[in-house]
Amino acid sequence: MREAITVRNLSYAYPDGTGALEDVNMAVYEGERVAIVGPNGAGKTTFLLHLNGILRGSDGQVEVFGKSVDTLKREEIIKEVGIVFQDPDDQLFMPTIFDDLAFGPINLGLKEEEVRERVKKALLTLGLSGYEHRCPHHLSYGEKKKASLAAVMSMEPRILVLDEPTANLDPRSRAELIGIIKELNEREGITIVIATHDVNAIPALADRVYVLNKKIIAEGTPQKMFSDVELLRENNLEVPEVFKLFEVLRCFGYNCEELPLSIDEAVEHLTKTVAINGGHIHLHVHEHTHEAIRKLKSKYEHH
Amino acid sequence: MIEYPEIDRYASLNSPMHRFDPRAKIIAFLFLIFSVVLIPDLKVAFIGLFFAIFLLILSRIPLSFVLGHLKWVAMFVLSFFVILAFTFPGKEMANFYFLSITAEGLYTGSLITVRAFSAVILIFPMIGTMRFDMTIKALDKLKVPNSLVQMLMFTYRYIFVFADEFQQMWTAMASRGFKLRTTLYALRTIGKVMGMLFVRSYERAERVYRAMRSRGYTGNPKTLVEFEIRRRDYILAAFIIGFAVSLHIISFAGVV
Q1: Residues in chain B within 8 Å Cβ distance of A83
Q2: What total number of domains does chain B contain?
Q3: Given this model, what pLDDT does residue A71 score?
Q4: Are residues B186 and B159 in the same domain?
Q5: How many CB pairs under 8 A join A and B?
Q6: What Å distances lie between residue B60 and A108, A172, A269, CA to CA?
Q7: What does the radius of gyration of chain A's CA atoms come to, in whole angstroms?
Q8: Cβ of A106 and B221 within 8 Å?
Q9: Comparing C-alpha atoms, which of A208, A180, A178 is closest to residue A193?
Q10: Span A3-234: which CATH code?
Q11: Closest B-chain CA to A138
């Protein structure tokens, strides 16, 4: 598979000399979904800013589809990599939603008709048709967040980078946005890179996880990361509630090798277990159940 | 909630002023405003004021909305009126101890007051009858320097964001017992809050600039807009500009 993003030995220090990134290595394959997790101030946003050349390391450290971002022109980079920033008020800087969505395509040098077509398509994808002439300050936070994504989608990038896409959203907007991101990946094959704290969104949004805390601490499937208690503890990370619940069920004798991370996986798992056990699930309290529960609780105590 | 400075609140109404092409409207009204503020004669200035009110009524913008804004202008302008009336040299009309009102002072004061009110009233049918982004785009189409257009554009976008931020800080202060008094402590606190607001806007500017560069900003953003100037617009513009010119012909000829 082709590498969409390649990062080699990337280090970055803020102008005041504080180190932000140390020797970061990462490979994201085309069509893949990768999540970057890590505590506050771990350098996630700083890292993302390197992916389209807003911040630069030294030569050839960041490559997009095999080309170094240092040698690419700005239009060429932004055509490939679209970044959606966390605060929609930073992202939406034009007077109306239409102007904002048209901003990127115009800068790509597209013709007026093509620009209008792209804006229309992006609005449709995000379910924002009819919002063309609304001002950003008249929108709800969820709508602004969707508009931010639309403003990047109108440039039709092959790689979509999102900084905390689900932060501060109400449950419905959050679910909508997760659904849209998933669909963009599945339908259009867009490579997704997400920096997030929202562990419950990771199973739906990521095939692979990088733990970043100035350095890359760990890399692997969500399953592998969430099973590593020490890793989670050291980097102030949470595990999905479903994962915890099935750990509890395991103390009650539920047979489960690989713990489910999401409701969907849980349903699948339960269905399979019920089928194997002839229509039932057996849970029971052993002598050691209480001890196991106590241990389990203390395991997650730091949270 | 705080009141936003929404000059374009009534932009969605329908009136001859709303249908007026934005570019023609801006040119015609600017012409009229300059004409009105340069009128040397009080009687002619009153004709200008009546015309301004006529255009305002034509625009269907609610009077209460306009008066609400005029209140602040009035406070400023009327103070000029009072100062001029008392300080302008000329024939004394009345005496209050050591202060005296002169006829010339009253005349000049009234002239300035009438001109100022006319100009401010004209702002409403001009930019209150279209969405503010249309005003910005029209200015851009009229070849106003791009950096000025951008400044207006970002001011318009972020004034609401900063207003919200200030409101949040104010609420946070009030909920911890802060009351606005004329004490040194209160003033110092306000100063700090303003400072904080500057720091925040500086940081936001940095983030916004990143977002802009991420979408290919190179310094000259273009916008897409379709304006169509029709015969009706030419006629209306010619009428307004013609009126502006005739105000000066009248006062020059001393007809009134």
Answers
A1: 211, 214
A2: 2
A3: 86
A4: yes
A5: 86
A6: 42, 41, 66
A7: 21
A8: yes
A9: A208
A10: 3.40.50.300
A11: B160
